Amino acid sequence: MSKTAVNSDDKREDILLGAFDEFCENGFLAASMDRISKRAGASKRTVYRYFASKEQLFQTLMQRQWAVFADHMKVSYRPGVDIRTQLTDMGRAQSRLFMSPEIMTANKMLMSEILRDPQIVSEIQNEIDYTASFEKLLKEAAADGLLDLQDPRQAAEEFISLLKGKAFWPVMFGAPLVEAAEMEKMIESSVDIMMNHYGNDVRPRGGLTGDI
Fold first, then answer.
1. Which of 2, 46, 88, 119 is geometrically suited to a Cys-Cys bond with 42, CB 3.0 to 4.6 A?
2. With contact defined as beta carbons under 8 Å apart, do 37 and 47 qualify?
3. Fold of 62-198
4. What is the pLDDT of residues 111-153, one digit of tens each?
5. pLDDT by residue (tens digit) across 33-47?
């Protein structure tokens, strides 16, 4: 990679970091491209050379954050390994995200804007699927007879929702981050629910019931 390309990548990253700080501090509506350029140590003209608008900057940050989620939630099915252990590992993959101050701060900023204007995600909401690896693991486990389920996608979404309802959404609305010991209890409870419903000695009757 040429020195020019490296410098270009560095400047783009500086702009994204400056935009992140600006959005966190002032929110999307009040954020200023002038202040973003100052935070990034770049001219406003340079900022617009990389990003055509404040909306594009925000969407790029949101896309990066979802990519972080997808990367951290990658798990693979391991034949011969106890399914409860594998479900626990799925839970821990989520928990690392939910206990990270940096990641949760980013999500709080992004979610506040998504709740204000759902259309802001309309162009990119289908580009990153962070449920896919969970779905694949559950599908392969079911094929090996470790789980009894008809819809791996639904089961993956249910499992994600169990922890998200306890450790993600409360933080989005002001609760403190969940501590490690408490998170382990939440993971164990979520795995128990999944095993009670989808364990191979239980016939599933649709999806999980109740609010999660």
1. 46
2. yes
3. Tetracycline Repressor; domain 2 (1.10.357)
4. 777 777 777 665 555 556 778 899 999 999 999 999 999 999 9
5. 999 999 999 999 999
Handedness of CA 163, 167, 172, 173 (dihedral sign): positive
Q: How confident is the model at residue 202 (pLDDT cuts 50, 70, 90)?
A: very low
One-letter identity of residue 97: L
Which CATH fold would you assign to the domain 1-52? Arc Repressor Mutant, subunit A (1.10.10)
Q: Computed over its alpha carbons, how large is the radius of gyration of the chain? A: 20
Q: Which residues pair with 98 in a beta bridge?
A: none
SS (H, E, C) the chain: CCHHHHHHHHHHHHHHHHHHHHHHHHHHHHCCHHHHHHHHCCCHHHHHHHCCCHHHHHHHHHHHHHHHHHHHCCCCCCCCCCHHHHHHHHHHHHHHHHCCHHHHHHHHHHHHHHHHCHHHHCCCCCCCCCCHHHHHHHHHHHHCCCECCCCHHHHHHHHHHHHHHHHCHHHHCCCCCCCHHHHHHHHHHHHHHHHHHHECCCCCCCCCCCCC
Whether the full predicted model's pTM is greater than 0.85, yes or no, is no
Q: Where are the domains of the chain?
A: 1-52, 62-198
Q: How far apart are CA 44 and CA 132, in angstroms?
A: 39
